[in-house]
Write a structure and sequence with these properties.
3 domains, 7-stranded mixed β-sheet, FAD/NAD(P)-binding domain, 5-stranded parallel β-sheet, 13 helices
Length: 450
Amino acid sequence: MSRYDYDLFIVGAGSGGVRAANTAAAQGVRVAIAEQRYLGGTCVNVGCVPKKLLVYAAQFSREFEAAAGFGWTIGKATFIWSKLIFNKNKEIKRLHAIYNNRLQKSGVEIMIGRAQMLDAHTVAVDGRQYSAERILIATGGWPFVPDIPGKQHIVTSNEMFFLDQLPKRIIIVGAGYIAVEFASILHGLGVKTTICHRGPKLLRGFDEDIRDFLADELTRKGIDILFNTDIEAIESTGDCFAARLIDGSKVSADLVMYATGRTPNSTGFGLEKLGIELDDEGAIKVDNDYQTNVPSIYALGDVTNRVNLTPVAIAEGMALINKLYADKPKPVDYDNIPTAVFSQPTIGTVGLTEAQAREKYSDIDIYTTSFASMKNTLSGINEKNLMKMIVVRSTDKVIGMHMVGSDAPEIIQGMAVAMRAGATKAIFDSTLGIHPTAAEEFVTLRTPVS
């Protein structure tokens, strides 16, 4: 009989933690999982899922506008924010039930409460102690807000999903995917939207052409973007807020949202007492097997600050459990991970950016095309698509694909499969396109740009 209460105790019931719990329990492992806030973590509650629902809602304003060009007469449309949030909450509640049922059917014991690490094999939840042979930390990340005067007036993406009412004007500080997604959502819902960013471009780390193209499209839609500036202080003026910028000017808004990054959620669990090593940003340090410097304690997902994407955390959870309990060591391949930004227009990308490619290879060919989709020729909507392919000339291998435009994430998902299979430019060229689609442009690119 084991001297431990559990074989595996998981702290954090987000995407990575839940997948690890279900996978382990299915193999006969005695598993417990503790969650302080909500089953499903960030993705289900204040991230991917509710964000995508809001994205859908925001797209209708453009669809109504486009309908006239196709012969439809649309009456005055009315949007009710409270109804959207009510229906969103209903859907999240349904997902909670699914997560809870799956964990219970797998035999996982669910504990609701804040976990505290007492030693390398002991966790306390609400004052009760539990022992485990192994402990897995999967506590995710948390929005970062700088310490400035008026900080108490700031909201983050967490609060945006539960606003009582839509603001008429909003300032969004930041330039990452959360900032541009919420800017697109709110603009689509009729909010006067301003992005404020201390740097010169949006979406650091993305391909330069993608960054420039998206900024132009957002500006064309009517979103104000203030580059190379920052907020020094936020003042309440009674019925609104005034953001004082570094040049002394002020911008008024009904709401100020900060999307200035997320930090690993690694404090307050007692990790310091155990001597678990953290990096300068607070991420838990792990080796290639997700093991910390304390041999019985593991960590994965956003709290390790590697690749902060839901599918990556899920893959890490499966890889860890299969190695520990099924003797199937198969590490996660972090190359060519596709990703999307659900801005309007959307972005899909996989592989190297042009800058990364030129740093790694000396013989690069770049193929690009920009065009208005067929739908927009009748709709009158002034929005274009951008597609970009990066090829190593000597091997003909495709090493990067990037797109801005309608359905970009759906299109790039398929392109990611081709790239992981090692597709060459010749294979793309020999593939017949589906006509008329935007996706066919990727198989009709013939001449590299100079």
